[in-house]
UniProtKB/TrEMBL annotation:
Superkingdom assignment: Bacteria
Positions of modified residues (N6-(pyridoxal phosphate)lysine): K198
Protein name: Transaminase
Domain Aminotransferase class V: 37-351
Length: 416
């Protein structure tokens, strides 16, 4: 029998909407020794991670901790812990990930009320508020930044409206936290989920989430139902109403993240070291500085794309700063271009889904990948590939336009 080949991991420049490159400090942290999950040295790291999450998620909530699993594990944990069969859930959807919220809600037995807007746009808050009045949902669940279309939905007015109409506001902020402003408390978000492999710039595999007392009340009520079932008291009453998942039961998980440290699953200790170090890096950089870095690199990328004569997809008024969607020029196979970028330049950009498949490329500027060097290399490589495929674009303009932006930003900084 042949021995297994040595692990082969080529160096890449990753300009996709995740997973993205991570700071070497995160990888180093993840290679530290294993600790037992009840070791005081480890529970101290858990507590510090919760504190770091509160700051990055801009919340005073007691509960802010990661679910072990990718972002959708966090979404599923949140929804299946809140939604009971028959609960009405309003899902305003402006891309693929609105569909994910609907699918999970439906699997939890929720009654899904979806409203849609054309891909490439987002909702006017009034449209959503009107739908809240009409459907009177228990929960409004929606995406903040949808990576499939590269759009961002302003949330503040919707958050206020949810509170006013006494429904819970649940937000998938997977693509935005750590890259652009997300104000959990100020925007009155009751439950928020994010992921590690996007703007937090930590390997995939954890889904930080936070929730407030309004959600905790539901968890406690459903937990008491569960306990009633165990003791046989409320059997018939409420079999329907128990939280259907063990792994994703937030009422149990919060007991593990509380000083009680009740055993649940075995914590992914090395993954938590990575998250901790990623949060530390974000707070060292400063939230506002980090958002500014994301804006600057986005601006340079967009300037370069436009200087090439390519067209951006979607309504510019709601462009997601961490993802740039570019229309694939007529007569060009988008996958050929992506393959050449990867093989010849070791650069990865993304394709798209559903109605946009084959129509746009998506270029991420997220976390550690969101650097001047990466933006300039991506523009240079994309230009070279398109020229090689005989696309008629002006040669040499893209990188110059991006460099102009960086110079302009420097100038603005000095003159302020
Ligand atoms: C990437 C992404 C997800 C899903 O993330 P996984 O980590 O692959 O489960 C969910 N929502 C949004 C908005 C995303 O961008």
């Amino acid at each position: 029998m042949q021995p297994l080949k040595a692990l082969h991991v080529p160096a890449r420049t990753i300009m996709t909407p995740g997973p993205v490159e991570v700071d070497p400090r995160v990888l180093q942290a993840m290679s530290r020794s294993i600790l037992g999950q009840f070791d005081p040295a480890f529970t101290a790291i858990m507590n510090d991670t919760m504190e770091g999450l509160r700051r990055v998620l801009q919340t005073q909530n007691q509960w802010a901790y990661p679910i072990d699993g990718t972002s959708r594990a966090g979404i599923e944990a949140m929804l299946c812990s809140i939604i009971e069969p028959g609960d009405r859930v309003l899902i305003p959807s402006f891309g693929r990930f609105g569909g994910l919220l609907a699918e999970i809600t439906e699997r939890c037995g929720g009654e899904v009320h979806m409203i849609h807007t054309e891909w490439g746009t987002v909702f006017a808050p009034d449209t959503i508020i009107a739908a809240i009045k009409e459907t009177e949902p228990k929960v409004v669940a929606m995406v903040h930044g949808d990576t499939s279309t590269g759009r961002i939905q302003p949330l503040q007015e919707i958050g206020y409206a949810c509170r006013e109409h006494d429904c819970l506001f649940i937000v998938d902020a997977v693509a935005t936290v750590g890259g652009t402003d997300v104000k959990t408390d100020d925007w009155m978000i009751d439950g928020l989920i994010t992921g590690t492999q996007k703007c937090l710039s930590v390997p995939s595999g954890m889904a930080p989430l936070t929730y407030n007392h309004r959600i905790e009340e539901i968890l406690m009520e459903r937990k008491s139902i569960e306990q009633g079932l165990v003791t046989g008291e409320q059997e018939e009453l409420n079999h329907q109403r128990r939280i259907r998942s063990n792994y994703f039961d937030l009422s149990q998980l919060q007991e593990y993240w509380s000083p009680a440290r009740l055993n649940h699953h075995t914590e992914a200790t090395a993954a938590l070291y990575g998250l901790y170090e990623g949060l530390r890096l974000i707070l060292e950089e400063g939230l506002e500085q980090r958002f500014e870095r994301h804006r600057t690199n986005e601006r340079a990328l967009v300037a370069g794309i436009e200087a090439m004569g390519l067209t951006l997809f979607g309504d510019p008024g709601c462009k997601l700063p961490t993802v740039t969607c570019v229309e694939i020029p007529e007569g060009i196979n988008g996958e050929t271009v992506r393959a050449m970028l990867l093989e010849d330049f070791a650069i990865e950009v993304a394709s798209s889904f559903g109605p946009l498949h084959g129509k746009i490329w998506r270029i991420g500027t997220m976390g550690y990948s969101c650097q001047k060097k990466n933006v300039l290399q991506t523009l240079a490589a994309l230009e070279a590939v398109l020229l090689r495929l005989q696309v008629k674009i002006p040669a040499g303009e893209a990188v110059q336009a991006a460099l102009d932006v960086y110079k302009q930003v420097e100038y603005e900084k000095v003159s302020h």
